[in-house]
Amino acid sequence: MKKILFFILILSFNTNALASVKQNIINNLNNIENLNFKFEQNINDKIETGYCIIEYPKKIFCEYDSLNKKLLVSNGRSIVIKTKSSYYLYPIKRTPLNSILDKEFLLKKIEKLEPRSIDNKFINFNFLENENEINLFFDKKSFNLIGWQTIDIYQNLSITYLSSITKNLKLKKNLFKLPDRN
Q1: Which domains does the chain have, with CATH numbers?
Q2: What proportion of the chain, given as a percentage, has pLDDT over 90?
């Protein structure tokens, strides 16, 4: 009987601790207008790095550390991926970034989801939206978004890690203007 009572007490403590962390993640996300960060992206074992800026809702600007000067830009409606030799334009609705870059959507989703602790350092929320499985990862101490895992539009597993995160900086006015074709 004592073992059962102890187990229930421990389970209750872990559930309350995760609920508190979840609320802190929600509070932190609520106070973010934009994020600046370095990233490492792994798509089918091809690793790319660079720097991104997210402005909610649905805007992103990323410069890749690549010789072909790859850019990824969303103005909230469309996404452009541009290199020296190519130019791809997609409606944001067709990509998992439609959900990831929508703070209000994320807040509503996280509110309903059960958090999962990973290695007692990270908190994970997993959901399916418009046939896209999305895994979000938050740091358990800072409550910052530190990455996501999705399946991209070509059905590739895409894992993105964030580092050197800063919040709510003053941004250039036309930063999220879609670049012209080559």
Answers
A1: 2-167 (2.50.20.10)
A2: 71
